């Protein structure tokens, strides 16, 4: 389902795609997912051109990269793992394993799921920026940050997760089929005039040096 609302900054997205291709050439296959936290949108691009816009739901507590923050991390990531080939819509995962349970999909705005279910498909993220979203207290992979389906489709378009990026179930199925392991993902605040690669800083405020070929690992 295509998201409604403010139109995307296509020029900014194309610039961002080009910047990421130059920074991470070994991971660039022309496909890119960009999550705009401010607009609650996920943009799927191919060769710098916008293909699809999806509505999403990021964290209730906003953005942040630290462990146990229950916030959605910012920065550059890759798809580290995929789970859910051929799973039914609403199929519940626990520890990335199917439980056999099917969650009901909620449409009434007042309804809430009885748990923060992960359903249908999982795209597990791994950070690519050491000291910012990779390693130590900020390691995205060890925080179990996913793009995944949710039974709370009634809350898509507003922040409602505990850190992950939630999608409608039909949307995550569609995206899952188009986005292989190692595809780049960029999560941006979306508050600037153009989309730019979030620049990491250390705890002391000094820039963490970004060298595309150095220090990249998954998990």
Write the layout of secondary structure elements.
Blueprint: H1 10-23, E1 31-36, E2 41-46, E3 49-57, E4 75-83, E5 91-94, E6 97-102, E7 118-127, E8 146-149, E9 165-167, H2 169-178, E10 184-188
Parallel strand pairs: 1-10, 8-9
Antiparallel strand pairs: 1-2, 2-3, 3-9, 4-7, 4-10, 5-6, 5-7, 7-8
Pick out its properties.
219 residues, mainly beta, eight-stranded mixed barrel, 2 helices, 10 strands, 11% helix, globular, disordered C terminus
Description:
By secondary structure, this protein is mainly β. 11% of the residues lie in helices and 28% in strands. The protein is built from 2 helices and 10 strands. The protein has an 8-stranded mixed beta barrel with strand order 1-2-3-9-8-7-4-10. The longest helix has 14 residues. The protein is globular.
Can you give me a brief rundown of this structure?
The protein is mainly beta and 219 residues long. It has helices at residues 10-23, 169-178, and strands at 31-36, 41-46, 49-57, 75-83, 91-94, 97-102, 118-127, 146-149, 165-167, 184-188.
- Binned, the helix content reads 10-25%
Q: Note the run of SSEs as H and E.
A: HEEEEEEEEEHE
Indicate the proportion of strand residues: 25-35%
Round the Cα radius of gyration to an integer and report it: 16 Å
Mean pLDDT: 87
The number of strands is 10
Distance between the termini: 32 Å
**What sort of overall outline do the alpha carbons produce when their principal axes are compared?**
globular
Query: Which strand order do you get reading across the main beta sheet?
Result: 1-2-3-9-8-7-4-10
Low-confidence stretches: 202-219
- Put simply, the count of helices is 2
Main sheet attributes: strand count, strand direction, barrel closure: 8 strands, mixed, barrel
Class by alpha and beta content: mainly beta
**How would you classify the quaternary structure?**
single chain
């Amino acid at each position: 389902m295509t998201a409604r609302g403010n139109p995307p900054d296509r020029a900014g997205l194309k610039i961002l795609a080009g910047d990421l291709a130059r920074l991470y050439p070994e991971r660039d296959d022309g496909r890119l997912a960009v999550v705009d936290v401010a607009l609650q949108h996920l943009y799927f691009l191919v060769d710098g051109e916008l293909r699809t816009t999806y509505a999403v739901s990021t964290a209730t507590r906003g953005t942040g990269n630290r462990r146990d923050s229950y916030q959605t991390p910012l920065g550059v990531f890759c798809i580290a793992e995929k789970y859910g080939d051929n799973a039914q819509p609403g199929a519940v995962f626990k520890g990335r394993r199917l439980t056999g349970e099917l969650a009901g999909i909620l449409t009434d705005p007042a309804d809430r799921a009885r748990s923060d279910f992960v359903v249908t498909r999982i795209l597990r993220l791994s950070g690519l920026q050491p000291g910012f979203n990779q390693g130590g207290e900020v390691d995205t992979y060890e925080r179990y940050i996913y793009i995944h389906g949710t039974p709370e489709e009634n809350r898509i378009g507003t922040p409602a997760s505990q850190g992950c990026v939630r999608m409608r179930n039909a949307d995550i199925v569609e995206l899952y089929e188009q986005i292989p392991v190692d595809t780049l993902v960029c999560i941006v605040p979306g508050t600037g005039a153009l989309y730019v690669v979030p620049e990491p800083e250390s705890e002391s405020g000094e820039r963490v040096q970004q060298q595309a070929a150095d220090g990249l690992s998954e998990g």
